[in-house]
Description:
The chain is built from 8 helices and 11 strands. The protein has 223 residues and is of the alpha/beta class. The protein has 2 domains: 2-121, Rossmann fold; 127-221, Winged helix-like DNA-binding domain superfamily/Winged helix DNA-binding domain (Arc Repressor Mutant, subunit A, Orthogonal Bundle), CATH 1.10.10. The strands form 3 sheets. A 5-stranded parallel sheet has the order 2-1-3-4-5, with helices on both faces. It has a 4-stranded antiparallel sheet with strand order 6-7-8-9, covered by helices on one side. Strands 10-11 form a two-stranded antiparallel sheet. β10 and β11 (218-221) form a beta hairpin.
Amino acid sequence: xxxxxxxxxxxxxxxxxxxxxxxxxxxxxxxxxxxxxxxxxxxxxxxxxxxxxxxxxxxxxxxxxxxxxxxxxxxxxxxxxxxxxxxxxxxxxxxxxxxxxxxxxxxxxxxxxxxxxxxxxxxxxxxxxxxxxxxxxxxxxxxxxxxxxxxxxxxxxxxxxxxxxxxxxxxxxxxxxxxxxxxxxxxxxxxxxxxxxxxxxxxxxxxxxxxxxxxxxxxxxxx
Length: 223
């Protein structure tokens, strides 16, 4: 299991890494909320363990951010704040479970494994949302502010990939491999043409553009 641990208490974080690694899990460690957000955006994880109170960005803000960007990785909140209102706030922010400090490590492992099983057996995601843009994967429809947007099959695939990586810079190589299934550069402007068409459809007539060009890096879909 791939686990992201976002905890500013170095001693506690290292203890979790040791214990989970001994159980055969691959752990990535982040020391504050901003570092955790960068790690969540850069990698794919089966479970995230996130402390609520951290410098630079608190855990609630971190999870609210990745949920807005479409990341549905199961999250276990850790916190010394154990009141009902604190737990409710964490769950409403997008957390899946809440464990109050101090805790028994055996319980931590049990909860992490339960979250992983829940993800494996859970329902398949059929609806993607990024800001005011909504994609129905079953009906193959796209709407922005309630207005239906007609897309060609390749444009739909392209937008789906961008929505699944909302807020991240997506490179041309990533698009070639994941959308066109090319593992080489065909030396054509196929990406530029499709990005231009997609941008005209999802941004034209709306207050602000969502599909951005990142100079020297690629493209990004912003909520």
